[in-house]
Write a structure and sequence with these properties.
- The structure holds 2 protein chains of 2 kinds.
- Helices cover 39% and strands 16% of the residues of chain A.
- Chain A contains 10 helices and 10 strands.
- A 3-stranded parallel sheet of chain A has the order 3-10-9. A 3-stranded parallel sheet of chain A has the order 6-7-8. A two-stranded antiparallel ribbon of chain A has the order 1-2.
- Chain A starts with a helix and ends in a 29-residue tail after the last helix.
- Chain B contains 1 helix and 5 strands, in the order ββαβββ.
- Chain B is an alpha+beta fold.
- Classes of the chains: A alpha/beta, B alpha+beta.
């Protein structure tokens, strides 16, 4: 492989050991989650900040520390810049990281990003010293605005969160990648391995997913599949694919063909 | 006095600190009493862990005790 395809993912000056970011959401229990995370080879994973409750007190942070996986808190569920900024500050206090996956959604039905609140929150958090990885729509204009605001990575969706519809607008993702000078992480919408490979073939620097692995019938196997897909897609990008053609092009030479009768009749 | 902890009206002594509230919340949810991973908002402002013991709450205060859970 070329040096470029081998290059590590670098976000805000930090080297990450994998181009697949596997979130922790959606697994049936922590044992399943642990096997899936390990199989995916991820070096960074998302967590959410929620009220302390009786349920789910498995020691998630201890597990992630043991596995050597860096924590990326998110602002999932926040609908306004105000909520998202406060949530990011609480996460920084609880987890000791100034990295945040900034997520400001418009409504529960689509979970699509709310662009005005998102940009406002990004500005406030960058000013406050956060390393902001911004979850956004696949709008190339907004992606560039987020980069210029100072986001360390821009993370356009392939399709709405949890839908598994893949990459609905590959053209927009390509355009975002071409114009970016920060890492572009395809975030949300991935359903299966070919979606992750396509994201990398389009030039994305990484893929972030959760549901596609944690809610697969075999999360561990799907974690492995996604790791391979991200690696394969990146290698294919650097390998330089052949151009698409409308007509067939034989790969076996025509020269030197034996003189055989095509229909079995004796030569005249 | 009554305050609101994680959305529920709760009675606490008049001199309760944020540290007392965190301890009570951890006890009632079976969470470990020490360690990191917990953050507190008092009336929509972050209270750093180092200030929990010295920060008292007023009647009617809204306290959110949060921790990291699987998500995203």
């Amino acid at each position: 492989m070329s040096a470029a395809s081998d290059a590590p993912l670098i976000i805000a000056g930090e080297h990450l050991g994998s181009r697949l970011i596997t979130g922790t959401g959606g697994a049936s229990n922590h044992e399943v989650l642990e096997r899936a995370l390990v199989a995916s080879g991820t070096a960074l994973t998302t967590v959410a900040m929620r009220r302390a409750s009786r349920e789910g007190h498995g020691d998630l942070l201890a597990m992630l520390t043991r596995l050597g996986i860096r924590v990326l808190p998110n602002t999932a569920g926040c609908r306004t810049a105000r909520e998202a900024v406060l949530t990011a500050r609480l996460a920084r206090e609880a987890l000791g990281t100034d990295w945040v996956k900034l997520e400001v959604i418009a409504d529960e039905d689509t979970l699509l990003p709310e662009p005005v609140e998102l940009l406002d929150a990004a500005e406030q958090l960058v000013d406050d010293g956060f390393t902001v990885l911004a979850y956004t729509s696949d709008d190339p204009v907004l992606a560039l605005r987020l980069e210029r605001t100072g986001c360390a990575a821009v993370m356009p969706l392939g399709a709405p969160i949890g839908t598994g519809l893949g990459i609905l607008n590959p053209h927009n993702i390509s355009l975002i990648v071409e114009r970016a000078s920060v890492p572009i992480v395809l975030d949300a919408g991935i359903g299966t391995a070919s979606d992750a490979a396509l994201a990398m073939e389009l030039g994305c620097d990484a893929v972030l997913l959760a549901t596609a692995v944690t809610r697969a019938q075999d999360p561990e196997l799907m974690g492995r599949a996604m790791a391979l897909a991200v690696e394969a897609g990146r290698a294919a990008l650097f390998a330089g694919r052949i151009p698409e053609r409308r007509r067939a092009l034989a790969s076996s030479p025509m020269a030197g063909m034996a003189d055989l009768s095509p229909d079995g009749a004796a030569p005249a | 006095m009554e305050i609101i902890v994680n959305g529920e009206t709760t009675s606490v002594p008049g001199d309760a600190s944020v540290a007392d509230i965190v301890q009570a919340t951890r006890a009632s949810t079976g969470a470990p009493s020490g360690g990191g991973g917990t953050a507190v908002a008092l009336d929509d402002a972050v209270v750093p862990a180092g200030a929990w013991a010295t920060t008292t709450v007023a009647p009617g205060a809204r306290v959110e005790v949060l921790r990291a859970v699987a998500g995203g």
